[in-house]
Write a structure and sequence with these properties.
By secondary structure, the chain is α/β, with parallel strands linked by helices. The protein folds into 3 domains: about 100 residues, Conserved hypothetical protein from pyrococcus furiosus pfu- 392566-001, ParB domain; about 60 residues; about 45 residues, no CATH class. It contains 9 helices and 5 strands, in the order ββαββαβααααααα. The protein has a 5-stranded mixed β-sheet. Helix 1 crosses helix 2, helix 5 packs antiparallel against helix 6 and helix 8 packs parallel to helix 9. The N and C termini lie far apart (about 95 Å).
């Protein structure tokens, strides 16, 4: 039989030395174990004597768990593991070998042809989230399938990482394409009028239609000294025209 336990890392040994594995990869997985408070892929162990275990599958994960314990003894003290009965060791090894020999099927990712020209209205109605939903569903389906496996080939872990990077890149691309197709808002142009068309008695509405250069020209025509900003000059013009309020 095979039972799931939390096993103290110090009670486990591995027949494969730590030097066989890439140091950077071991440290990266160790940090991930600490961040997620546990090992996603349980070790498969056999009992060699009371309270002592040896790794059958998951040597890389074991050394990553050792490194995690070295970094944080409290959080990295225990590790998830399946402990098998000595009587089942041969059948478990046979199943592991079968899993390792399974081919990894390529993922089907939809390809957008360069000459594909969907209607602008439909593209504008689709948000970035809607555009990447098919890829997101594929990622979640694969993740759920992976998490149900008691023994996960290391190739699948690498494939998940690559798929997640592809997903992030696709999200950015979809958002940029969606943003480019949004109609730009026309800039409001300030309406101006000719000074000759202004009445003698001015109001604030009249002045609001004039440019700053026209305000200064109007002030000079009325003998007002140009001093201060537009608001100050407008007050003087309205004061002179007896319409300031």
């Amino acid at each position: 039989m095979m039972n799931f336990f939390l096993v103290d890392v110090v009670c486990i040994t591995s027949a494969k030395p730590r030097e066989e594995f890439d140091k950077a990869r071991v440290e990266e997985l160790a940090d991930a174990i600490l961040k997620s408070d546990g090992l996603l892929k349980p070790l498969i162990l056999k009992i060699i004597k009371p309270e002592r275990f040896e790794v059958i599958e998951g040597h890389l994960e074991y050394w990553a768990a050792v490194s995690a314990r070295e970094k944080d003894r409290r959080k990295g003290e225990m590790v998830n593991a399946f402990v098998i009965s000595p009587k089942k060791e041969d059948t478990i090894l046979e199943q592991l070998q079968t899993l390792k020999n399974l081919p990894i099927l390529p993922l089907s990712v939809p390809v957008v042809k360069p000459d594909a020209k969907p209607s602008l209205q439909k593209d504008m109605e689709r948000t970035p989230l809607q555009m990447i939903q098919p890829l997101q569903k594929e990622v979640e389906t694969i993740r759920r399938n992976v998490e149900t496996l008691s023994s996960l080939p290391s190739q699948l872990t690498e494939m998940i990482k690559k798929l997640e990077k592809s997903f992030q890149a696709s999200l950015t691309t979809c958002f940029n394409q969606w943003a480019e197709k949004q109609p730009s808002k026309p800039k409001k142009q300030k309406q101006t009028v000719s000074l000759d068309s202004l009445p003698e008695q001015l109001t604030q509405e009249h002045l609001s239609q004039l440019s700053w250069d026209q305000i200064k020209e109007l002030a000079r025509d009325r003998g007002i000294k140009i001093k201060g900003g537009r608001v100050n000059i407008e007050k003087q013009i309205l004061g002179n025209s007896d319409n300031y309020s």
